[in-house]
Design brief:
By secondary structure, this protein is an alpha/beta fold. The protein has ten helices and eight strands. It has a single domain, classed as Rossmann fold (3-Layer(aba) Sandwich). It has an eight-stranded mixed β-sheet with strand order 1-2-4-3-5-6-7-8, with helices on both faces.
Length: 285
Amino acid sequence: MSRIQWVAGVPVQIDEPAAGAARDTVLMLHGWPDTSALWDGTVAALATHHRCLRFTWPGFGADDPPGAHTLANLVALLHQVVQEVAGGPVTLLAHDWGCVFGYHFAQRHPALVTRVIGVDIGDAASAAHRSELTLKAKLMVLAYQGWLALAWRTGGALGDRMARRCAAVLRVPTPAAKIRAQMGYPYWITWTGTQGSYRALRPFDPVVPMLFIYGARKPFMFHSEAWAQALAQRPGNRVLALRCGHWVMVDKAAEFEAAVRDWLDAPKVNACASSGRPSGCAPEP
C-alpha cells in the first residue's frame, strides 16, 4: 500500500506491506541529482516486509523554488518526518548527500535511529579520508563540486545546462531532463560557507549497527580504508564492495537489494555503548 503524508510542505511517500505488520521502518534519503524516485526499485524489493518512507529534499523537486536550505533546517525536517510519519525510531538508508544529512541527524538524535545503511559515503572529508586521496583525486573533487556550486549560483537555463553537463561527465543515471542547477545548493554551501555553512558536520562513527555498501569502480572513494575496516570489525556491521560506480542501487540493483534485505532480516544487534566500540554490543534476545 502506498500513500502520501505532508510534513512541513514536503510530501512523504509511505509504502508498507499490504498485510501483516512491517518488521521495521526504513527512511530513504537520496542525494545529488536525484529525487525520491531513486529508491523505486529498492522500495519494491523491501516493502513486502518493511515500511518504507521517502521524500525529495527541498530544492530538488521540479516545482521547488530555487534557494539554499540550511543544514539545521534539513535536520529539523528529518526530525519532523521521523516523529510525525514514522512515529518512532527508524533505519536510515542513505546515499550521497542523503548520507551527509542523515549521518548528522543520527549524531544529533541517536535515540531515533536504530540502524544505518550507508551507500557509497563513509567518513568523507575526515583527516583519514583526505590523507588517502591523491592530488589528482582532490583536484577532481574540486572541479566537479566547484562547477556544480557555480551552476547553482548561475541558475536559470544556463545553470541547468552546466549541471547536466557535469552529470553527463560523471555518468549519472538520472535522466538529464530532470537535473536542475537548483539541486546544487549543498555544493554552494560547502565551498562558500553561506547559509550557516556545514562546519557542524563531523566524521560519522556509528553507535548503532551499520551496513556500508560502496561502488569499488570509481576514480576515488568517499571513505577511508581505515574507517571501513574499523566499521566491519564491530558486531552487527557489514561492509560490502560492489563492482560498480557511485549509484550502487542502480548499477547493481539485484545485488544491492539482496544485501539490504538480508542484513535487515538478520538477527539484530543492540546499539553499542556510548563509546561505539564492539564491547558495548550484544545480540538481542
